[in-house]
Structure formats: structure tokens, C-alpha cells
Here is the input.
Amino acid sequence: MDNLTEKLKKFGPSFLMTTVGAVAAAFAVAVFLVPVTILDGGIVGVSIIISTLTKLPLGALTFVLNVPFLLIGLKSLGKRFLVTGIYSMALFSVMLRVFETFGQATETAILACVFGGVLLGFGVGLVLRGGGCLDGTEIIALLISRRTRLSVGQVVFGFNILIYGTAGLLFGWDRAMFSLLTYFLSFKVIDMVEQGLEQAKSVMIITDDGRAMADTIYQRLGRTCTMMEGAGRISGSKSVLYCVVTRVELSTMRRIVSEADGSAFVTISDVSEIVGNHIKRQPPAAPEKKAEA
Here is the structure.
């Protein structure tokens, strides 16, 4: 019983956020956006285009097209991310089917754009805070960013521009402009809910065993940490680790810290600008390799 209680305390909030977020995002897409041919970005946007042209079920398309991206990111993001991602995507797809029977909330495109964009951003933000994912585009963007000078946001934005351009050719340029406006609205709401869509995060960790935690971060995320020595007024000598990660990696970073040292003190801050390649990710290291101080 105690073990079950501990698991509920540990995973319950993340499960709840992922569930509520997936339902909210599906409602926004099915009831506000799709009926007036406004597209979301990423794989969901591609699915909307295919579904509109072929009449194939949107929910099934979204899930089928997203799963390969999750599998591609398995090695980099871990099994738990895969499980949480599959759950959030599956629930999102099922709820899309359910909400399709509700009809449209409004026939006015600007109202659908504003309310749909805000609700979509709220839902996606909750899913991301819960450690899940509704769109595989970000996973591929993270892998591309690791090997190029492009940021995750630049890759995602470039992909979405192609989608909205296609929407303009197929459905009219007003639909493309409404879709782009929806994207920016949802982007800002995600920023408020999840503390940043692609924006880098600086993580400072104060722990008793900095070397072991730095090694774990390097092995699982491929991120090196800057290590400093500190001293607490009461607790004595401490190691201070500084690391910069992306939003997609933030939930994994939280798990690493909580699993490695339950007494560690952690602060997470927005990074407004990065000069150099500190955000670039290295291939995950073998267990015997040490993280750079």
C-alpha cells in the first residue's frame, strides 16, 4: 500500500496534467480549428491536410504518423518518454474522434483562431509539463539541432511554414494566415503554461555528489555540466552543477535529479540568449566516461 501511495504521489500529477492537456488540445483542434479549416502545426497539421483531402479519420492519422517519430527519439529521450508520449498521443487521437461529433463551436474564423489557439496552447503546455508529447516534429527537431547550428525552434518553425504554405495553396491564403496566427497564439500560451516552447533552460543543481549526478546527466542526456564547489551555512560542502537544456529534455532532467539525490536543491531559469554552442547536445556517453567539470 505504501509503495502504491508513493507511486501515486510521484506519477499522479504528471499523469493528470498529461490527461487534461491531451483532452483540451483535442477539443481545441476538433471543435474550433478543423471545422473552419485552420491548421495546427507539425504532424497534426499534416494530418489535418490529409484528412481534409481524403476523409480519413483525423485521430487515427495523427497517431499513426506520430508513432515513428517517438520510436526515432527513443534512444535519446528514454523509455519513460516513449510510454508517456504514446499515452498522450493515443488519448489525443481518441478524443479527436469523440469531439468530432460535437460540431463546430463557431463559424467565425477569427474567433476559432483565438479561442482554439489559446486552448490548444494550454493543452499542449500541460502535456509537456507532464513529460508527454503530442507532436513528433519536436523530437526530430531536437535531433537535427544536435547535429547542426539550427535551434529546435528554428527547425519547427521552418517545418510549419512549409505546412502553412501548403495550406495556402490548397485551401486559400486566408486559411494559411489564420493558421499562422493560431500557431503564434498557442506558442505564447505554451510559453506561459510550460515555461517555454523551445526556449533554453538553465538548470542549477546543488547536491552532495556532483560528479555522480554530472555523469548521469551526460549518460542520459548527452549534456555536460559545469561543476563548482560551494558551501552551505548549515549543510557544509556542496557541489554546484550548471547545465543548459531544451524544453523537451527538462522533464528528464527533473527525473534524473529526483532519482539521483532526493535532497538536491534545483533552480530552473529561462535563458534569453545563448552565445556559442552550449545548447548543442552530445551523443550519450558510455557509463565509464566522465562529465566535464
Summary: The chain has two domains: 2-194, 201-270.
